[in-house]
Amino acid sequence: MRCRIRKADLFASLVVFLVALPLCVGVAIASGVPAELGLVTGIVGGLVAGALPGSSLQVSGPAAGLTVLVHEAVDTYGVQALGVLVLGAGLVQLGLGALRLGRWFRAVSVAVVQGMLAGIGLLLVAGQVYAMGDAAAPASGPGKIAGLVWLPGRVDAGALSVAGATMAVLLLWPRWRRGARVVPAPLVAVAVVSAVTGVFGPDVRRVEVRGLVDAVRVPGAADFGRLTEVGVIGTVVAFALIASAESLFSAAAVDRQHRGPRTDFDRELMAQGAGNAVCGVLGALPMTAVIVRSAANVQAGARTKASRVLHGGWLLLFTVVLPGVLGLIPVAALAALLVHAGCRLLPVREVRVLWREHRGEVVVLAVTAVAIVLGNLLEGVLVGLTLAVVKTAWDISHVHVETEDRGEAGIVVRVLGHATFLRLPKLLDALEALPHDREVRLELGGLRHVDHACAAALEGWAAARGHELMATSRSTT
């Protein structure tokens, strides 16, 4: 039995390695850093985070979901500051895990998370479409989208053909299920296109290889001094919170795919923090748990954490033995790979379901995505969270006013539900519409909650009615 489990984990580790290799390189290029730094993060995700307790089958590494935020940080503070940003985020994650706050990430509105992924997907696709044609992309999100109008006249035909061929393989290869189980589509697409362009193809821009040792940069004292800057602190917090949310939501999704041990969210958060701390010391990209690699791990038959640790070992072996292979990969092929990944981040099916059942959630999702595209990732998420809280408050603030005319005995008005400031106009309209020449008895026993604004408004209305009002209440304010 032990031998069977070891074989399953060994095979799964090879599958995950083949999936992770092109994605690690592609995410690094899209983030504006050397390709080797993406591989460093993948290695740390396997050897460090993979060996720690938390989730048994979840695989970590550089993720497309952080590409936009990392690129903004590199543009603002420089690649030399990336290490201290990631290290700070890792320490924040360790603190959150030590305080047992990991489980609270599950309380984030699903619509906000899906909106975050949609916004990231839109920006990723909009940015990488330029790279598919070896064209320079505008810096801002709105600029990327607006620039698509003039893009056709700026693209390189050879690079675009390489990207198109890559996309075709990505879409067609999974249809051969037997082959797709053995060799993942991303690796096939990048390998085939790299080989063909290397022998017969056009002269296109390729990945620049510097070597693993040259790419790694340990943060210095001057870098740590930047942690006093407000913008840097905000970026660190954004890295930590978004990476944590993505990792823990991924863990919940992976748990639904297998029958093994469930994820300990606090321990998994600390494992992610430890991995990011190591990535920061090496000056590499931030890491998160990645659902694509994790799903490949489960589907390949992994049984224990050995598979994810081994995948990190395979990445390290490849980087040491065959680093020159990276220089054969066209940038346009990696851009097509990331466009494909960005499209998969768009929650099209989820939006259809939500639109039929919870249209308010679709509004939260859409506003979050648009805010990310127009602003930045952190601002968009904060806007989405705020809107989700307001929507929830509105949903639970149901006030129903019942009126009973008892003739000479007067009018009995019963107020039921939750009286909050959000429903105050409706409540006052109903009360002020009552006739002034009749005795009114206001019963508030059906209210489950009355906030201060409504309580003050009711008292003011009662004072204005004078002796005509007889109020009874069994609710608390």
From TrEMBL:
> What range(s) does the SLC26A/SulP transporter domain occupy?
7-368
Pfam families according to UniProt: Sulfate_transp (PF00916)
Q: Where in the cell is it found?
A: Membrane
* Sections of the chain in a coiled coil: none
Q: TM segments?
A: 77-96, 108-131, 151-173, 182-201, 232-254, 274-296, 316-341, 362-390
UniProt membrane topology term = Multi-pass membrane protein
Keywords assigned by UniProt, alphabetized: Membrane, Transmembrane, Transmembrane helix
The identity of this protein, by name, is SulP family inorganic anion transporter
Which source organism does the UniProt entry give? Streptomyces longisporus
Classification lineage:
Bacteria, Bacillati, Actinomycetota, Actinomycetes, Kitasatosporales
